[in-house]
Amino acid sequence: MPSLSCHNLLDLAAADEVPLPSPTPLRLPRVMSVASPASPTSPSPPAPPRRVIVSHRLPLRAAPDPAAPFGFVFTVDSGTVAYQLRSGLPASAPVLHIGTLPAAAAEAASDELSNYLLANFSCLPVYLPSDLHHRFYHGFCKHYLWPLLHYLLPLTPSSLGGLPFQRTLYHSFLSANRAFADRLTEVLSPDEDLVWIHDYHLLALPTFLRKRFPRAKVGFFLHSPFPSSEIFRTIPVRDDLVRALLNADLVGFHTFDYARHFLSACSRLLGLDYQSKRGYIGIEYYGRTVTVKILPVGIDMGQLRSVVSAPETGDAVRRVAEAYKGRRLMIGVDDVDLFKGIGLKFLAMEQLLVDHPELRGRAVLVQITNPARSEGRDVQGVQDEARAISARVNARFGTPGYTPIVLLEGPVTPQEKAAYYAAAECCVMSAVRDGLNRIPYIYTVLRQESDALGDDAPKRSVIVLSEFVGCSPSLSGAIRVNPWSVESVAEAMNAALRMPEAEQRLRHEKHYKYVSTHDVAYWARSFDQDLQRACKDHFSRRHWGIGFGMSFKVVALGPNFRRLSVEHILPSYRRTENRLILLDYDGTVMPENSIDKAPSSEVISVLNRLCEDPKNRVFIVSGRGKDELSKWFAPCEKLGIAAEHGYFTRWSRGVPWETSSLAADFDWKKTAEPVMRLYTEATDGSSIEHKESALVWHHQEADPDFGSCQAKELLDHLENVLANEPVVVKRGQHIVEVNPQVSHARARLFYCCWLVVQPSLRTCTKHADQPDVAFELKPSDKDRPDPTQSSPHPLHAWGQSASSPVSPQTSSRGL
User: Fold this and answer.
1) How far is the C-alpha of 411 from the C-alpha of 664, rounded, in Å?
2) Residue 337 lies in a domain
3) What are φ and ψ of residue 408, in 5° steps?
4) Is 246 left (phi over 0), alpha (psi -120 to 50) or beta?
5) Fewest Cβ atoms nearer than 10 Å: which of 244, 565, 740, 775?
6) Residue 789: what pLDDT?
7) 3-state secondary structure of 61
8) Rg of the chain over all Cα atoms, to the nearest angstrom
């Protein structure tokens, strides 16, 4: 595929152009269609794009069997989200799964096994050496990244459940992600395939994939929480991970909180703002729009109903009903994990029996624990704590034939779990932090489907749910609790057991309606459609790769963009007699983050050399005041200056300053300044800049989120109080500025020329002949004008954006 990689934007300017390709036709079906009298002669429609689902593990189970091919019997693991989402994809779309083998079969890696799994299960394994996989998964992912995403900071090397950051483990994480990219490279058709990457294990994969395929259609869904920016910013490689997510076209989260934290991290770490339009959230990143999607995963309704209809389930229901006859049954199902709050749940059960003696001998909490997904001190600690608390509670309140807390640690079949769900009056989830947790969804459906198990009574259920679980916003009828408040959880459990049946039915109906309509198929279909929408402009833009390592990014430019090179400039430059050169100061002539804003001796020397050519007219254009600019550029005798966005202009050092033809009425400052002062006092790090023609409120040193919020409020406030004044209130990057109104009748340089250069052109044409060629050098997105006030100017113009690419709306040429 035609593409170009560069180290930075300067290298991009000097590189050769790459022709814009046209979309590659979709693959035709592999089976030939033959016309028959019973079938139309029109050609078959093209096959839909292939979906490539990438996850850490393949959706497979592997049972050892020496007689089976490769020593294992492989079957589909229908309980994984990676497999269940297929139900929401187009039926005719091919689906390919990429991931590592189940742990039991990890050593059976071979090309023959790959071909076997690809042919029989549409699965392509990624082979990682055992030591690399251990460092990648059990080292960096589960013992550093996983705890941190769940708000657990590794404060000491011996912190329970978390390891301090280790560069060697991070390199293993990158090596594993690179191996996934290598596997994708072997099979991917980047012009056609849609790639869907799952979860935090593969956070770096979008960057490696984008390096190789700039136009790849990449979606990423994070199944874990995304912590607040205060937590995320503690990661030493935080910028790498945020940039990696921004290399995807669509990034999905379960809840608005997770998405909000991600947007805040983008703002604080990379200075990126987002926009919300027609229900979609987008982040502009080097010419690309990265879409942010918020939608929790649902459950597989068909799979649950198949479990309910199994004969074994009915037998299990009868056993459970007999064992807990006359009891008030509550159910909890959790992984053995530090964040599931199992110990807190048991303490709440103890408090319930203390506060409500009438429930002793009647209330029972059945806790099913799923096997841990990793090993470590934290797992053993959770198990020991759960056993100790349950044993103490049972010893204190238990009687012959009555056990308050039933802890089921061994393997529990899906049919047995379904029986407990169907029999329980209440489901209790007390996780202190969880990405989503679909257990309440499963409980709701199985309570609804209990008529298939012989229960034809009106359906009802109650859920006691931690407010820190991702599914909490979706289940508005649940009793939400703070799991850290044991007394509150105990009272919620009591309220659930005492709730009138009519209210239980109403809550249950509300939950079931949501869960049944927002299943995993709905989630997958919605994500798939939004991914196609996010990628629809891929072939209408040119793409260049810039940067090395994890700093790599793709610059997307419009089809009308043409690289401005020396070969383009020199012919026009040499054959013209009058040249206008416009140089923006901050961010172009001088770096924007420079502390010393005065021009260097090298800058002065270059400007003087340009001014020595009698054919050149050179202007520095800036929003700064004329006194400051006059002092800085005093050594440049022939240099023109446009100060305060063109309100003051000077053709050369010996020429008096000219001002706009507008009336010099600045009484509006008496109204605007007190308002700005009020916001300055309320916003730490903000300041007011007084200019002769303008007032500017700066907030670049303030907290990014608070400063942005205050800027929006200040903008509205000033627009209201200055509505009848001859001024314009505008918001720029970290500023709110009040300027005199600009005449619409002024000549414009060209479509993208911003307001600051217009008086320079007027002065230029007043003092000499109209220039034959104009060269503009400015940072993009700075002081961008209102396009409706612009009109083309008949100059041969060359525009250049110094910090990021020029958009199609601003120029047709750029470096």
Assistant:
1) 83
2) yes
3) -100, 105
4) alpha
5) 565
6) 33
7) strand
8) 33
Left if phi > 0, otherwise alpha if psi is -120 to 50, otherwise beta: which for 734?
left
Q: Residue 765 — φ and ψ, nearest 5°? A: -75, -20
Domain final residue, candidates 247, 276, 294:
294
Contact 253, 175 (CB under 8 A): no
With contact defined as beta carbons under 8 Å apart, do 265 and 243 qualify? Answer: no
Question: Could you tell me which residues come within 8 angstroms of residue 167 by beta carbon, excluding any fewer than 6 positions away?
Answer: none
pLDDT of amino acid 769? 54
pLDDT in tens, 372-387: 877 767 788 899 999 9
Burial class of residue 127, CB neighbours in 10 A (0-12, 13-18, 19+): middle
User: Stretch 290-317: mean pLDDT, rounded?
Assistant: 92
Q: How many domains does the chain have?
A: 4
Contact 373, 413 (CB under 8 A): no
Which residue in the block uniquely carries the two structure tokens 């608005």? 256
Distance, CA of 239 to CA of 221 (rounded, Å) = 19
Task: Give residue-wise pLDDT tens across range 673-727.
Answer: 999 999 999 999 999 999 888 899 999 889 888 998 999 999 999 999 999 998 8
Confidence of residue 10 (pLDDT cuts 50, 70, 90): very low
Report the C-alpha gap between 81 and 222 in whole angstroms: 12
Residue 276 CB partners (closer than 8 Å, separation 6+): 282
Of 1, 189, 221, which Cα lies nearest the Cα of 96?
Answer: 189
Q: Which domain holds residue 721?
A: 668-740
Beta carbons of 757 and 582 less than 8 angstroms apart: yes
CATH number of 419's domain: 3.40.50.2000
0.90 surpassed by pTM? no
CB neighbour class for 646 (10 Å; exposed up to 12, middle 13-18, buried from 19) = buried
